[in-house]
Write the structure tokens for this entry.
Amino acid sequence: SAFGKLFELAGAKPRFQVTADGKSIPGVEMAVFKRDAAEYLTVEKRSFEFEKYPLKADIVLDGKYYVTDMRSGKSFGQIDRIPIQLEGLSCHVYSLLPYKVEGLEVSAPKNIKRGEDLKMEIALKTSASPAPHVIRVEAAAPDGSRPHEMRKLDTQNGKTTCILPIAFNEQPGTWTVTATDVSSGASRTVKVEVGK
């Protein structure tokens, strides 16, 4: 674009570029959202009549990051180029982390009674001190109905606490609780026996 060339002449260069065969692709808009050391990249593509879809391309990053496609949960590992398949009017969201999320630890009681609170301690396992992350917690009843209860919790220093109240009239039996880190897709499931 004319503005792009003007910025380039002034010495300004975008952090990220979407290219196919080494050439920039028109109609791509990107935005970066930052939360401490974690960054989230959105990539949107407007369609043009002269393009044939799907269009295979790469998002060229300004360095190496641990990248996850937040819509599919697919982790790419530590890379400096994200392979992407663009459709007309498509939107993609990626987390760009300077550290590796190695997993989640979930500490929960094995047994509780109806009418009690289910308290779980959740901790990210990372290769360096993490930025705040969002952890999604879903609870499924013994009959498999899902999600029975869902929470989204922020971490501080990689840790959070989740409290799920279990009503007096809830189904007794084995409940399945899954905690998922939204940024990396890392997930951990625990089973809790709910008694009468």
Summary: The mean pLDDT is 91. Residues 2-9 form the longest helix (8 residues). The helical segments are 2-9.
